[in-house]
Design goal:
Blueprint lengths: L6 H5 L18 E5 L5 E8 L3 E7 L5 E5 L4 E9 L8 H7 L12 E12 L2 E11 L2 E14 L9 E11 L15 E15 L11
Antiparallel strand pairs: 1-4, 1-10, 2-3, 2-10, 4-5, 5-6, 6-7, 7-8, 8-9, 9-10
């Protein structure tokens, strides 16, 4: 765990999406851009060991470069924490306070991943670094489902899916309410992106500039 704001996260605008249809052995890396109408981060945490507190943040913005043939990917997720919504305004205001999400001090969270695992050309797992409240820790997201619009359909190709992971909120300093409100938080990401371009063999390091 580190306490820094990753330079990579600040320089990338990223979408949590992937492609299988275009990722044959001969395919070049492809760039997808997030559709803000279809991409959100949802969270769930057990509340007083009775019910589950749920909410969502988003839309999330950005893009992703993927090369399934080479087993590589480069992803960044920029999450505006000011959009947090549980459906209950008083609860939203409480969650935004300094002893929980500290939205005033850290209005954006980031997820940056460069470790991807593919099966049969599909992304099934990605591991990277989540930065929340200015603190960074490892996070793995696993694909619950994934699909693409048929490449022969009109319009640009569109791919997306649902991804799941979990974090301990205390790792990020959001420890208020423990243990009555659970430490472990389930994260669900719904994501959909639109094909923008082929990377055309460009040096991957150029994506970080």
């Amino acid at each position: 765990m580190t306490r820094r704001r990753p330079a990579l996260a600040r320089r990338l605008t990223v979408a949590l999406v992937a492609s299988t249809v275009v990722m044959s052995a001969a395919a070049e890396p492809a760039v997808y851009r997030l559709d803000p109408e279809q991409t959100f981060v949802h969270f769930e945490v057990r509340h007083f060991d009775t019910s589950t507190l749920r909410g969502r943040v988003g839309p999330v913005r950005g893009e992703i470069t993927l090369d399934a043939a080479a087993g590589r990917g480069l992803l960044g997720l920029v999450i505006d924490m000011r959009t947090l919504d549980t459906g209950f305004r008083l609860l939203d205001a409480r969650l935004r306070q300094a002893d929980l999400l500290d939205v005033a001090g850290h209005p954006e969270a980031y997820f940056v991943a460069e470790r991807f695992r593919f099966e049969q050309g599909r992304p099934v797992e990605l591991t990277g670094e989540l930065t929340l409240r200015g603190t960074s820790a490892a996070l793995t997201l696993r694909a619950l489902r994934f699909g693409c619009v048929d490449a022969t359909s009109p319009g640009p190709q569109r791919c997306g899916g649902d991804f799941e992971g979990q974090v301990l909120r205390s790792v990020f300093g959001a420890s208020f309410g423990l243990p009555l409100v659970a430490d472990r938080v389930r994260i669900l990401v719904q994501a959909e992106g639109v094909l923008q371009a082929r990377a055309n063999g460009r040096d991957w390091s150029s994506r970080l500039d």
